[in-house]
Task: inverse folding
């Protein structure tokens, strides 16, 4: 895009969008939000950056060879949490009886595996939105 | 009669949105407008499902520290979260199919594409 | 002519759906059959079992975490489907025709 106002405003707003997305994602068990909303906000921030500045600069910011591992790693992280519960007790995806740290209510590091699962979901949704957008638009793109 | 319609206004709105989406899919020839019509139908189904769980005079299901205990039914909202993600996946897949069709036929009109494909086959 | 027929059929369908929907209980009544013992159990015991005040997050990540695992697989499958169409069969082969 060749407009000066849009480029300046996007460059100023982009860190605030990222911080807000991480806030909504990490406080999923205390306030409305959670994994899906936080992941959508972070993915939307990256899509805005790609729209305004072009595909080459967005590739320099977040290359494809790291995004591959984020996308597969989110799903494997979720399954690893489930298998940890299977090895400790006899049940897949168990929370309090598997030995996760429960903590007190209304604080950030509480309620066991909910924090890790919302983090995995948020990473997965954000990487899905970025990858789908980069596949569908039609610019010069090298897949390695 | 009027009170009966006013009490079920969410459900009637969901049915109206569904009929509007169905009309959009059946009438237009452009492929992108048909995908938008499918999205409108999915939104109507989500509205119908979530408004089942409303309880009069209750709060959102987040426990605060002053001990109120009348909450909205949390189960329909938790089920629709999965449905919204499935709707997004279907839209992404159909849009990529439209990109491929446009590269092959150079048009987005449904009747021209079907005429060209029946000519190729005969 | 066929467009008028289509509008007529859709109007009949709308009237049938509205008559079917008017038989349901009113929005917001407290004796709705969807508010059964499962919902009452989730509302009463979510704070004690999981230490999290948000009941919906406790449902989708603790009580019904297996459904969320299936949904994450659906997200992964959508990327595989889009990649199999747009990348594997030549994304930019004929830009000049």
Result:
């Amino acid at each position: 895009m060749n407009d000066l106002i849009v480029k300046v405003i996007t460059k100023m707003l982009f860190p605030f969008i990222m911080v807000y997305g991480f806030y909504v994602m990490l406080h999923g068990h205390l306030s409305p939000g959670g994994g899906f909303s936080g992941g959508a906000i972070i993915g939307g921030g990256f899509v805005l950056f790609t729209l305004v500045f072009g595909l080459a600069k967005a590739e320099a910011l977040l290359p494809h060879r790291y995004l591959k591992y984020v996308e597969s790693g989110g799903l494997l992280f979720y399954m690893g949490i489930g298998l940890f519960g299977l090895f400790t007790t006899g049940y897949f995806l168990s929370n309090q009886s598997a030995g996760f740290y429960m903590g007190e209510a209304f604080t950030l590091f509480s309620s066991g595996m909910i924090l890790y699962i919302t983090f995995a979901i948020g990473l997965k949704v954000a990487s899905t939105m970025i990858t789908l957008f980069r596949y569908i638009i039609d610019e010069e793109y090298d897949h390695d | 009669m009027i009170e009966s319609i006013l009490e079920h206004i969410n459900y009637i709105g969901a049915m109206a949105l569904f009929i509007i989406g169905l009309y959009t899919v059946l009438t237009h020839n452009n492929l992108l407008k048909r995908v938008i019509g499918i999205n409108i139908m999915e939104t109507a189904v989500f509205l119908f499902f979530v408004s089942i769980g409303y309880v009069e005079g209750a709060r959102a299901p987040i426990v605060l520290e002053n001990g109120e205990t009348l909450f909205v039914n949390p189960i329909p909202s938790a089920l629709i979260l999965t449905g919204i993600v499935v709707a997004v996946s279907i839209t992404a897949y159909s849009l990529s199919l439209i990109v491929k069709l446009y590269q092959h036929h150079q048009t987005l009109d449904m009747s021209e594409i079907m005429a060209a494909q029946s000519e190729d086959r005969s | 002519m066929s467009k008028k027929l289509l509008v007529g059929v859709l109007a009949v369908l709308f009237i049938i759906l509205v008559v079917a929907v008017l038989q349901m209980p009113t929005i917001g009544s407290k004796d709705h059959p969807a508010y059964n013992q499962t919902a009452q159990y989730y509302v009463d015991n979510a704070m004690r079992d999981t230490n999290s005040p948000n009941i919906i997050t406790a449902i989708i990540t603790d009580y019904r975490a297996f459904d969320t695992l299936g949904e994450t697989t659906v997200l992964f499958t959508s990327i595989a489907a889009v990649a199999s169409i747009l990348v594997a069969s030549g994304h930019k082969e004929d830009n000049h025709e």
